[in-house]
């Protein structure tokens, strides 16, 4: 009986370990997702190789800080905290194009060249919640605004200047200049192992 119970436990542990081997891992990164050709932008570009642009922070408004960055296969994410709007006041996520759920949203004129923009207000102030999506052929970028307290919706306008996109072509050129290697994906020559 003890042998059977031990075998069941050992099998369960082995299956758990095998499952974890094939499950994508999301790693926290201690650096900032600043626009440019820094390490975080390179890692995020590789998370979604078909993305022609990578979301980034152009400049932080007063009272805002970078809360964290996490990157895994198929997803790059960072969030901003605010002394007024709270933690995770805006969560920015880069995913493959099919990951955007456009149902319930409406398309508006885009402020980003080559990207379609969709808006979905979910809750009015004082506890505002809204979703913005930028969709391209190769990627989907979502901004989830979630403001605590009495933060005005005008804070979204402030964040419009703070958040931007880094063209992948700049990242491809930087990797090539630094190492002579190719940053596989959109805007790069075909890489070994590419299908097609």
What does this structure look like?
By secondary structure, the chain is an alpha+beta fold. It has a single domain, classed as Protein Transport Mog1p, Chain A (3-Layer(aba) Sandwich), CATH 3.40.1000. The chain has helices at residues 2-22, 39-47, 155-162, 168-179; strands at residues 26-29, 53-57, 64-72, 75-82, 86-95, 106-108, 116-123, 129-135, 140-146, 163-167. The longest helix has 21 residues, at 2-22.
Strand-helix topology:
Layout: H1 2-22, E1 26-29, H2 39-47, E2 53-57, E3 64-72, E4 75-82, E5 86-95, E6 106-108, E7 116-123, E8 129-135, E9 140-146, H3 155-162, E10 163-167, H4 168-179
List keywords for this structure.
196 residues, 34% strand, 4 helices, two-stranded antiparallel ribbon, 10 strands, Protein Transport Mog1p, Chain A, eight-stranded antiparallel β-sheet, alpha+beta
Provide a short characterization of the protein structure.
The protein has 196 residues and is α+β, with helices and mostly antiparallel strands. The protein has helices at 2-22, 39-47, 155-162, 168-179, and strands spanning 26-29, 53-57, 64-72, 75-82, 86-95, 106-108, 116-123, 129-135, 140-146, 163-167.
Fraction in beta strands:
25-35%
Number of domains: 1
Q: Tell how many strands the DSSP assignment holds.
A: 10
Structural class: alpha+beta
Shape: globular
Mean pLDDT: 82
């Amino acid at each position: 009986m003890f042998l059977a119970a031990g075998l069941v436990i050992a099998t369960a542990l082995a299956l758990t370990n095998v499952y974890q081997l094939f499950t994508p891992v999301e790693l926290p990164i201690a650096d900032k997702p600043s626009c440019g050709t820094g390490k975080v932008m390179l890692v995020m570009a590789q998370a979604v190789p078909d993305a022609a642009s990578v979301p980034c922070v152009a400049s932080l408004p007063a009272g805002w800080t970078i809360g964290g960055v996490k990157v895994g296969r198929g997803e790059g994410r960072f969030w901003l905290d605010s002394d007024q709007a709270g933690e995770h006041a805006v969560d920015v996520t880069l995913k493959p194009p099919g990951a955007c759920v456009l149902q319930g949203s409406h398309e508006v004129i885009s402020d980003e060249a080559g990207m379609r923009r969709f808006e979905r207000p979910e809750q009015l102030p004082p506890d505002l919640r809204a979703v913005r999506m930028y969709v391209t052929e190769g990627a989907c970028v979502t901004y989830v605004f979630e403001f605590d307290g009495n933060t005005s919706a005008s804070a979204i306008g402030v964040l419009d200047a703070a958040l931007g996109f880094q063209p992948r072509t700049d990242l491809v050129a930087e990797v090539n200049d630094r190492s002579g290697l190719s940053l596989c994906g959109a805007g790069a020559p075909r890489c070994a192992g590419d299908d097609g």
